[in-house]
Amino acid sequence: MMATSYSKNGWTLVKFDLNYHAAHYAPEFPRLADVWLSSLRQLSPCLQTLTTHLKYYSPPTPSESKMPWDIIKFNDGNQIPGIGFGTWKIPVGDTTVDQVDQAISVGFNHIDTAQAYRNEEEAGKAIHESGLKRDEIFITTKYSGLNGLDIETSIKNSLKNLGVQYIDLYLIHHPRLAVPDIPTAWRQMEGLKNAGLVKSIGISNFEIEHVDTLLASAKIVPAVNQIILHPYAYKRQAPLLEYLNEKGIVYEAYSPLIPVTQFPGGPVDKPVKAAAKRLNATDDQILLAWAKAKGAVVLTSSSKKYRLEGYLEAGDLVLTDDEIKAIDDAGAKGTRIFTARTIVRRTAAVLFAGAIALGVCSYLGIDVV
C-alpha cells in the first residue's frame, strides 16, 4: 500500500512513500508536500526509500460540534460560550494537559484557569496542541496575587504561560486580592483592557458591597462575576444574582454539581431525580440545566470523557418552571441529612458527653439534681 491515513481527535495522519507524489495522498497541501520531497531527495538518493509523516489539523465541521449551549453576550459587546471547562483542582503536570486536551476534543471551546491553580502553562500547551485558531477558543484566567505580584506583572506572566497574545476574560479572583483596594486594583484592570492585553475584565467571589465599591469609581463595568452557584447556595446568592442582572453583569457558576459530588442524599436529590427521569437524563445534567435556567454561564470539570459529553448535551435540556421551583425549594432546606445512622451517632455523642460531665461533677463533689 502506497499510503495510509487515520484520524484522531480532529487530526489526520498521512503516511506516504517519497517515491510518489505527495499530492496524490495529501491533496490538502500539495505545495508543502512537494517542498518536503524536493528537499529530502536533494540530500541523498538513499532517502528516496524513506517514508515521512505529515500531520495537519482538520477542525470539526459544524455538524460534528457538540455545543448546544448558548453564547452569552457581555456588556462590552464581547461574547462567552455558555459552558466552560474548569481546571481548578486538576493536578499540575501532564494530567492538566491530558484533561484539557480531552475537553477540547469532545467540544469544549471555553477553558478556565487561574494563577492560583498553577496550571496555566499546561492548559496553554493543550490549547496549542489542539490546533484550534486563537479565535476558536475562549480563555479565562484570573489574577490571584500569586507570589505577591501585581496585576500588570501577573498578566504578562499569564500571557507567557498560556502562549497567547491576549486573554479573552481576566478576573480578580477574590475581593481580598484587590490590593491596595478595590478601586485601585480595578483601574489597573481597566488599563489592561485599554492596552489590548485582555478583551474583557471581570471579578470573582465579589458580594454586593464589593461590587458597589468598584462601580463607584469604575469607568468600565465588570463583564462577569464568577461565583459559587448550586441549589444549596441559591437562597443565599439570589439577591446577588438579582443585583448583577440589574447592573448588566453576567454571572458564572462554579461548583454547580456540589449537591451530587459532596452532599448526595440531601433534599435536592428527590426533585433532581424526578426531572432526570422525565428527561431521561443524569442527575448532574439536571443540575447543569438548572444553572443554565438561572441565567448562568456554567463551569464544570471531569476526567471522564463520557461525563464531559453528557455535560455538553445538557445544554439541550429544558426544565419546567415547577421542576426549577422544586429544586429551589429543596435547596433552601440546606444540606443537612438526617438518617437513622446520623441519629444514633448524635445520640451516642450526647450520652457520652453527659457521662463525662456527670463523672467530673461526681469527682468534684457537685450534686446534680
Automatic annotation (TrEMBL):
Domain of life: Eukaryota
Recorded GO MF terms: oxidoreductase activity, acting on NAD(P)H as acceptor; oxidoreductase activity, acting on the CH-OH group of donors, NAD or NADP as acceptor
Record keyword Hydrolase present: no
Organism lineage string: Eukaryota, Fungi, Dikarya, Basidiomycota, Agaricomycotina
Family from the record: Belongs to the aldo/keto reductase family.
Residue span(s) of domain NADP-dependent oxidoreductase: 83-257
Residues that span the membrane, as ranges: 343-366
Database matches in Pfam families: Aldo_ket_red (PF00248)
Name of the protein in its database record: NADP-dependent oxidoreductase domain-containing protein
Keyword tags: Membrane, NADP, Oxidoreductase, Transmembrane, Transmembrane helix
Stored PANTHER family: 2,5-DIKETO-D-GLUCONIC ACID REDUCTASE, NADP-DEPENDENT OXIDOREDUCTASE DOMAIN-CONTAINING PROTEIN
